[in-house]
């Protein structure tokens, strides 16, 4: 592993630790009543986010020549590259997944139960699925990061 790769891996891990810490404050500060789960919202958000990730990527196609290769998301590469939307969506997916799992642990371990986990977890799952669908559908456009 090169030095640059170690830095990006370290920064991703730090960001995920920040997401876990953020979950404590997220549950406390999110306005609204989250005493009961609302599963339709959870699944709708997964679909909306997944379709949005796919749509953003799909609409980038006409702007780029067919020989332009996109970088596959990697834990060892810079996710903040211009003209590369997928790596940042992948990073955001993991951030929201960890945030949602932290909210799950906090919200369900306390009384009264708090289902604030639905928002970040559904965003994380949707972004993760959206990235994976893009990688499958446009597999010929990607190269390793």
Describe the structure.
This protein has 145 residues and is mainly alpha-helical. It has one domain. Helices cover 63% and strands 3% of the residues. It has helices at residues 3-29, 39-58, 85-109, 118-137, and strands at residues 70-71, 142-143. The longest helix is centred in the N-terminal third of the chain and has 27 residues, at 3-29. The chain is flat and about 55 Å long. The relative contact order is 0.21.
Largest sheet data: 2 strands, parallel
Q: Strands across the major sheet, in which order?
A: 1-2
Number of domains: 1
What is the ordering of alpha helices and beta strands? HHEHHE
How large a portion of the residues is in β-strands, by DSSP E? under 5%
Annotation, overall tally of beta strands: 2
DSSP helix fraction: 55-70%
Contiguous low-pLDDT stretches (5 residues minimum) are none
Question: Helical element count?
Answer: 4
Chain-wise SSE layout:
Layout: H1 3-29, H2 39-58, E1 70-71, H3 85-109, H4 118-137, E2 142-143
Helix pairs in contact: 1-3, 2-4, 3-4
Looking at this protein, list some descriptive labels.
single chain; 145 residues; two-stranded parallel ribbon; flat; mainly alpha
Provide a quick synopsis of the model.
By secondary structure, this protein is mainly alpha-helical.
